[in-house]
Specification:
single chain; about 180 residues; alpha+beta; nine-stranded antiparallel sheet; 2 helices; about 55% strand; globular
Length: about 180
């Protein structure tokens, strides 16, 4: 029962973070979003910030999405605009892996001042059944000393829990996209 409550609290926190961040952007209304699509796949999302001094919009944040042959997101690159260098600076790389019953997300942070130099950050493993019900969750943090992944959190579901708002009617691609968007 205790682990089930932890799992439900985790899902609630993720959903609250999603809703809260969208409200903050909407309230400020100093941002403009530009999305680029390739058929049904979102390939780039750029956010521009209103520059009150120059009465214009300047680049703020950009995300690029790469898909595998099954139209599932394979990686997401996150960039922030450097006004000092007038260039995009990579902030993080999210890699998504799909194997039988396991959905893995690995996040690597980029070292400041480097365009592509990355350090390992976090790894999350979601064990799911064929209906995308969450069976267990494990979170790891990279430990430079020892050069290994260290388990920092583990939750096992005591009963079937829908995985971050997915529905039975959703296609596998829709379920994956909902989960990935929820992890921002």
């Amino acid at each position: 029962m205790k682990r089930e409550n932890v799992l439900i609290m985790f899902a609630a926190v993720v959903l609250f973070a999603m809703v809260g961040s969208n409200r903050i952007l909407a309230q400020k209304s100093n941002y403009v979003h530009h999305n680029e699509w390739d058929n049904e796949n979102l390939v780039s999302k750029t956010i521009y910030e209103h520059d009150k001094d120059h009465i214009t919009f300047v680049p703020y944040k950009k995300e690029e999405f790469i898909y595998d042959k099954n139209d599932r997101i394979q990686s997401r690159n996150v960039y922030y605009w450097s006004r000092m260098n007038s260039d995009w600076v990579m902030s993080a790389v999210y890699t998504y892996n799909y194997t039988d019953g396991i959905f893995m997300v690995e996040m690597s942070k980029c070292k400041p001042g480097y365009k592509k130099k990355q350090t390992k950050g976090m790894r999350c493993l979601y064990e799911i059944d064929d209906s995308w019900n969450l069976l267990s969750y494990k979170s790891y943090k990279w430990q430079e000393k020892g050069d290994l992944w260290v388990l920092i959190d583990e939750v096992v579901a005591q009963e079937s829990v829908s995985f971050l708002g997915t529905n039975k009617e959703d296609s596998e691609k829709d379920k994956i996209n909902k989960v990935i968007m929820a992890m921002k």
